[in-house]
Every structure is written in structure tokens, then in C-alpha cells.
Write a structure and sequence with these properties.
By secondary structure, this protein is an alpha/beta fold. It has a single domain, classed as D-Maltodextrin-Binding Protein, domain 2, CATH 3.40.190. Strands 1, 2, 3, 4, 5, 6, 7, 8, 9 and 10 form a ten-stranded mixed β-sheet that branches. α1 links the parallel β1 and β2. The protein is globular and about 55 Å long. The structure holds ligand 6CS.
């Protein structure tokens, strides 16, 4: 059969590299073909999710930044400073976390989706027209966020005016000044040329981008067991590949940005400067417990325990 797999990025961006490895593995180990649909070919993130839920697509990559609107618990990824930036700790966390591997799958199943994996895509950085050294600097800044209620809360707590928008509207929005800021990992700021419409990149260390790959649940459950295993094995190979692929990617991407636009300022906030941003975390966490669905408390507690177990707890 031909299986259709859509994702939210271009072919040579992180989600595309993952998808290409998955395709390669599936095609090497079965008679199936995987057809890849990068961003823009089938619509926005919300559209490809609908297509995966209805079975038009067999596979989809959608980030919790968008899934949070569908599965409220997935908003947990937007509690600031919850995830570490250490890439090894992050990879081990995603591989071993009970919250990710045991608690999230039933929540995705309720939406007709088989959660296959979640993986990190890099440190999230703010891009703005003016310097950001304190929350006051975000005052009056219309800051684009993914369409996720908790992310809106977190940027409100940072002092900005959050503006939820689908990805396709971001570059144009920055260009016309409808929005003046947004956040994304360095590779994406570089590959999508967002630096062209940005003067400052700020590293506050508040988050690391998470994404998730799923299959349509009926499709997956209808497969013979050995094919389910073959898919899971292909996902595991692609996971290892994408972790390795991203080694050094953040710094390389920042170098490329500086080369392409020497006038850009890239500023890493000091521990002291981060403090007021960190202090918002508790309030956002409380908000998550209110809007994060029935499992919010259980997921948050388990995430913290899982992070602690890999040496990335908030106290370690
Ligand atoms: O900001 C966004 O909407 C996009 N950012 C990344 C890194 N991947 C896909 C997502 O749509």
C-alpha cells in the first residue's frame, strides 16, 4: 500500500528529516510505500491533523503547540522552564518518560490517534524588532504564538500581547508589522529566513520545541502485529537519527543567520536576567492545572518525576 504522511515543516527541516528516515526504513523493511507531504502541500497544521483523524492520512507530525487545542493535557509542554536544554537529557527523557510513553497515548487514542513518538526540535528563541532583556521589554509587543491556550497564558505572563496564528501567516505578519515577535528553534528561524524580518534573537532558555508523530488509530490497529512492530522499529530508528542530526544544529544555524544578516543581535540572557521570566512559571503551571484537562495534575507530576529521573528536575 501507499501510506500518506504529512508534517508541519519543509522536507529538509527537522520534521522532514525524521519523516524521510521513517520512509526509508518502512520501504526497506516492507512492501509499503510512504508518500511524504511537507508543509503547505495539504494545508496548515490543523488541516493535516483533521485529515489524519479522518483517515485520509495514515501518519501525521503535529506539535503539541497545535495539539494542545485538541488534547488539553498536551499544553504541559508550555509551562516555562519545565524542559531542560541539555540535548542528551532531553533525548533520554523522551525515550524513558512514563508521562510521554504511557500516559499520553490513551489521550491521543481518544482522538482517534496512535501516538508513535515525541521528540525535541531545539531550544526555543524569541525573535523581535527591539531588544528583550526583561519582561517589560515585551510590553505592547504583539507576539505570535502557536494556537495553544497555555502558550497564550505564558506570553501574557511574560508581559507580551500574545497573538495565536497558524504558521503560514507568520512571515507575512512580521513583514507587515501585524506581529512584532515570535518564538521558534534556531534551525527554523534560519531555514524559513525569519531573520530577514527580525532584528533581535533572544535566548531566555524558557522552552525546547517538542513535536509528536502519530498514526490514524483505526489504520494502525487494523495492521497485522508484525507490521505494527515494523512501524515502531522505523520510528525508533528515525528517533535516533533525528537526535544525532540535531547535534550542533542550533549553533550552526545561529552562525548561518549571522552570516546572512551581520546586523542581527543574538543575545543570551544571564541567569539574573532570566529570573523574572522564571518567576512566571508557577502561575502558568497553576493555569495548566485549570485548563489542562482531567489528567493535568497527573501528567505534570509524572513529567516532573521523569525529568528528575534523568537528572533534569527543577531542583537538580
Ligand atoms: O512555529 C510553528 O508554527 C512551526 N515551528 C516549527 C519549529 N515547526 C512546525 C511549526 O508549525
Amino acid at each position: 500500500d501507499t501510506w500518506r504522511y504529512a508534517f508541519e515543516e519543509a522536507m529538509d527541516e527537522v520534521q522532514g528529516i525524521f519523516a524521510q528516515k521513517f520512509k526509508e526504513e518502512v520501504e526497506a523493511n516492507s512492501d509499503h510505500t510512504v508518500q511524504l507531504f511537507p508543509f503547505g502541500t495539504l494545508g496548515e497544521s490543523a488541516d493535516i491533523m483533521e485529515q489524519a483523524q479522518s483517515g485520509i492520512l495514515q501518519f501525521v507530525d503535529q506539535s503539541p503547540g497545535f495539539t494542545g487545542a485538541l488534547i488539553p493535557e498536551a499544553q504541559v509542554f508550555f509551562v516555562p522552564y519545565l524542559l531542560p536544554q541539555d540535548e542528551e537529557q532531553l533525548a533520554t527523557f523522551f525515550e524513558e518518560s512514563k508521562a510521554i510513553n504511557e500516559m499520553f497515548p490513551p489521550l491521543y487514542e481518544e482522538q482517534g490517534l496512535k501516538l508513535l513518538t515525541m521528540f525535541p526540535e531545539g531550544e526555543v528563541m524569541m525573535t523581535t524588532q527591539e531588544p528583550v532583556e526583561a519582561p517589560e521589554d515585551l510590553n505592547e509587543v504583539k507576539f505570535r504564538v502557536m494556537t495553544n491556550p497555555l502558550l497564550v497564558e505564558s506570553y501574557q505572563a511574560f508581559g507580551a500581547t500574545p497573538t495565536p496564528l497558524p504558521w503560514g501567516e507568520v512571515y507575512g505578519g512580521l513583514q507587515t508589522g501585524i506581529i512584532q515577535g515570535q518564538e521558534n528553534p534556531a534551525f527554523f528561524i534560519e531555514s524559513t529566513k525569519m531573520y530577514e524580518v527580525t532584528d533581535y534573537i533572544t535566548r531566555a532558555g524558557h522552552n525546547n520545541f517538542t513535536t509528536a508523530v502519530m498514526a490514524n488509530l483505526d489504520f494502525f490497529e487494523g495492521l497485522p502485529e508484525e507490521e505494527q512492530t515494523m512501524i515502531q522499529d522505523a520510528i525508533d530508528v528515525a528517533f535516533d537519527h533525528i537526535i544525532e542530526y540535531q547535534d550542533g544544529l542550533t549553533e550552526e544555524s545561529l552562525e548561518k543567520i549571522k552570516e546572512a544578516k551581520p546586523s542581527i543581535t543574538i543575545n543570551e540572557l544571564s541567569e539574573e536576567q532570566r529570573q523574572p521570566f522564571m518567576e512566571t512559571a508557577e502561575g502558568v503551571e497553576q493555569e495548566f492545572l485549570e485548563i489542562g484537562g482531567d489528567q493535568a495534575q497527573a501528567i505534570l507530576d509524572q513529567m516532573k518525576a521523569d525529568l528528575e529521573a534523568v537528572g533534569a528536575g527543577s531542583d537538580s
